[in-house]
Design goal:
By secondary structure, the chain is of the alpha/beta class. It has a single domain (46-209), classed as Glucose-6-phosphate isomerase like protein, domain 1 (Rossmann fold). Helix content is 51%, strand content 11%. Strands 2-1-3-4-5 form a 5-stranded parallel beta sheet, sandwiched between helices. Strand 1 (63-66), helix 2 and strand 2 form a beta-alpha-beta unit. The chain starts with 19 loop residues before the first helix and ends with a helix.
Length: 212
Amino acid sequence: MPKRFTNKSLHFKRKKNLDRQQFIINSLKESSETKLNMIEACSNDITEAVQLLVNAYKQGKKLLLCGNGGSAADCQHIATELMIRLSHHIQRPALPAIALTTDTSNLTAGGNDIGYENVFARNVEGLGNSEDVLLAISTSGNSPNVIKAVETAHSKGLKVIGFLGGSGGKLKSLVDVPVIIPSTNTQRIQEGHITVAHILCELTEEELYGKK
């Protein structure tokens, strides 16, 4: 008979030398330092990304987004900011944005039938049109399914923005505008990505529908 599970079976041991307060302080300091380093490392690329997206929307085009794990969640977040709104003082129509990370039937069928490395590329193939924009998010810059999506995007005439980290990985040279967070810590990179995303969305709203 299998051993019955009880709470007593769990043994969580706090590391003797772990100082929680110091860990919190260090994490917040590292996060803030990364943001400050982004001013020099990312400002010009963010400006280019905004211009690319604004131009696309002025032409009646759309944004597609792809990424894995936490980056997949960021795709949903960003698409929602554009489809609904970010700045409440701006009254505007929806800005078309589709996260390719949310349809479980699509993703699981793709993973089962054509391989998980192809799921985003397949959706770019089906939904993307020339002069649309793909936002490809990868903290390492080396996610195989994101790389394939970018390659398909280029073959269809889409422009590509990359939210990357560290050295930028393989995607650095494949995207049109690489925004590379200056950190090798995945947590800090993801925090940087969503900060850039809010700036991107807010500036796009302001330039398209803000008071002149």
